Amino acid sequence: KSRAKRFEKGQSRVTFDDVAGLENAKQDLCEISDYLRDPSPYRRLGAKIPRGILLMGPPGTGKTLLAKAVAGEANVPFFSISASEFIEMFVGVGASRVRDMFQSAKKEAPAIIFIDEIDSIGRARGTGLGGGHDEREQTLNQILNEMDGFEPHETVVVLAATNRPDVLDAALMRPGRFDRKVTLDLPDRPARQAILNIHARGVPLAGDVDLVRLAALTVGFSGADLENLINEAALLAGRKGKSEVDMQLMLAARDKVVLGGLREMLLSD
Ligand code: ATP
Questions:
Q1: pLDDT of 125 higher than 70
Q2: What residues does ATP bind to (predicted)?
Q3: 46: CA distance to ligand 1 center in Å?
Q4: What pTM value is reported for the model?
């Protein structure tokens, strides 16, 4: 039986340069990485930095990427768990993993903690299964207790991601908890172009490839979709024995990503 990992810990090498668009979100989070890099000027001013920040946005808009960028910019360790993993665990396991993670992060502070899919345990009470004292609620309570228990000198910032802010329990958003919100939108045309540029960096492109046009033809695509598009195009090129990706392959990959999204939508219904 494989031992499930308790939580992930790493040193992020992602920076804000790897994140295209999302200018407002980056601006908000700049302050956090600045503080983590050197808390002393903020301390001297008596400024209290937010402890918890909620990253809200549709799937694939870069929530995880942005959280890693904050850690990378500040050059601090990045601790992460996905809250959806706790749903099927034995009672008490989620809470003890949360405790372990916060303990390790505090030991290595300054640090970032990232909790993905917080909505899977942070739903308003009464709407979930188990009606009250189930694993989700214990895990959530542990997170909230840990955040309430931070000492002023413990420079740990908790970022949590959700694409369902509407279902979250209000207790999460109380002062001292996730009292700051950062919204990530689907990329607009210039942002799509910037994302395509980032992900096409390592790909040999034929002369006819027009990323400006491709950005115009990918309305509604998330950053993850665009990354996927470039990769699909490179795979298609490989399959056809080509040494470059041309515009026709890009457009075929675009259709593939659109159809993949439709298929997923139909299957989940
Ligand atoms: P989910 O809600 O599905 O967990 P997410 O919002 O956390 O998604 P990420 O995992 O950060 O999204 O994004 C997936 C990948 O898509 C990233 O690793 C990155 O390669 C690409 N991506 C998404 N948004 C951007 C962006 N703004 N700039 C550059 N790349 C992006």
A1: no
A2: 57-64
A3: 35
A4: 0.89
